[in-house]
Design brief:
homodimer; 297 residues; alpha+beta; eight-stranded antiparallel barrel; five-stranded antiparallel sheet; 5 helices; 16 strands
Chain lengths: 297, 297
């Protein structure tokens, strides 16, 4: 017999707000005022169209990795990624794309040896604390709409590797990767990578286009045969697309009262499905709310 | 240009043991003696064959949910699941299967109203502590080969919702679900569900057969049209299969010295790729090692 399983537990994830007495995190998102939202600049949106159909949109994080993000913008604008493919998909880990083994020269404006933007100064960030201990950093919370680990004592902050996080492939240190090869997390947040590799953003729409791809049979989830590679039709900045057709989104302001309420409920689910609120939550289980805007008249 | 990105970071996940000075968690697994492994009884393996090809194998956890596991064995043996499908796949959450909305009567031997096996007594379990705080329970660690949250003071232990965990669909409490509808986690561990729903096992092989399925377009990831449902050819216990053709596995003994070394390295990656060991790790990022046995002569 069927169980409508998790209907309420998961209501948040589909934005539903069922009629019930006790609020869910999704209810908070639905009721958040306009002042709780910030629009993502079109220059911070990287739009990937797969040749077989489907679009993946990434929000870039210049606040955390300005040199790598500048590289990615230059690569997109120059058409560097013409012919790019998704060539690696490892279950419960990452999907990775780019030109793979190419010797194509870097276009103008690309810094081939960026600094290691694994952490940035804590100073200048407005932090909302997660409220419970984090195994990967002295403290954890949210800054500028992003999940971060940080050290109040040492004064650094780092983007956290959560589901959907986007980072820059690299070889062994001191190489930091230039931005030509990118990966997105498609499994449990591999936070051991925090502070060891440059994160540059997160997927805000279409992660399922990566997460449903066949896993690669070769070591590390590489596709064994180039025929398996998933061709990418284009990688563009939204700011280079016509206004009428470009995707646009708002992210909840993590310094807003709405986010504080949302965070509190994520750690203390008390709606009808739940019998025992956890009283805590891990950083990657607090997905910062993002909503799509409709720019068409 | 290509980056061989994460090659070493991920070596564990493919069982490789590259030649290098500093040990990886994967090296510990490769070098573990026979005494560090325990075979999974064939009666604890639920084998799902998809009609379109592909096999998913689940290890059941009678130590934690004996009544639900007894139900699942009875359902498998009676052929209750003939005609079952995967009818729900929600990105970064769960894939769910069963008969969906069926009124098929329960076969003999099934308890239609099992007790809420969300926690069990801590007593009787040999616990290996995770070694750092857990947001979802007073303490966390490993018992009998499973990731668990527990309370030394209150004396309970609960299986944790990690990638690959398998649980029992239910409606609102006090319903606990009978076992006819099951789900597997295909995203970041939704540990807010711990102690709120019965976990009965984990996928030990073939999770990608679920994680790569198209996400359902209806609310909660339900497939909107029955034509989208993914048909299941059979759900059997390995103990009901011919010995020569049944899958078999060993799980690392979480009370063994090898597991202690593995856990320590998971929290302190120091091999060539890593510059900064985290010094901690979250429960779901310590995947308990499982290896397949070849029973053919």
């Amino acid at each position: 017999m069927r169980s409508s399983l998790l209907v309420i537990a998961a209501a948040l994830l589909v934005g539903a707000a069922p009629a019930q007495k006790l609020l869910t995190p999704g209810d908070i998102v639905t009721a958040a005022p306009a002042s709780a939202w910030k629009e993502i600049p079109a220059d911070d949106l990287l739009v990937i169209d797969l040749a077989g159909g489907g679009q993946v949109v990434i929000q870039l994080a210049p606040t955390f990795a300005p040199v790598h993000v500048a590289n990615i913008r230059a690569l997109a604008r120059s058409g560097y990624w013409n012919g790019a493919t998704v060539y690696r998909v490892q279950d419960n880990y990452v999907a990775q794309w780019g030109l793979n083994e190419s010797d194509k020269p870097w276009p103008a404006g690309v810094n081939p040896k960026p600094p290691a933007e694994y952490v940035r100064p804590l100073r200048g960030l407005s932090i909302k604390s997660l409220g419970n201990p984090d195994p990967y950093a002295p403290a954890a919370g949210f800054a500028d709409g992003w999940p971060v680990g940080y050290s109040p004592k040492a004064g650094w902050a780092t983007l956290a590797h959560c589901y959907g996080s986007v980072g820059v492939g690299r070889d062994l240190a001191p190489d930091t990767g230039s931005g030509g090869e990118l990966y997105a997390v498609i499994g449990h947040g591999p936070r051991q990578l925090d502070r060891n590799i440059a994160l540059v953003g997160r997927v805000v729409e279409g992660i399922d286009r990566f997460s449903t791809l066949p896993r690669g049979p070769a070591p590390l989830g590489m596709y064994a045969d180039k025929k398996q590679d998933v061709p990418i039709a284009s990688i563009r900045l939204a700011s280079d697309m016509p206004v009428a057709g470009r995707p646009a989104y708002q992210v909840m302001d993590t310094a807003s009262p709405s986010f504080a309420r949302y965070l509190k409920l994520r750690a203390n689910r008390h709606d009808a499905f739940y019998e025992v609120p956890a009283g805590g939550v891990d950083l990657c289980n607090v997905v910062v709310p993002v909503r799509k805007l409709n720019l068409l008249p």
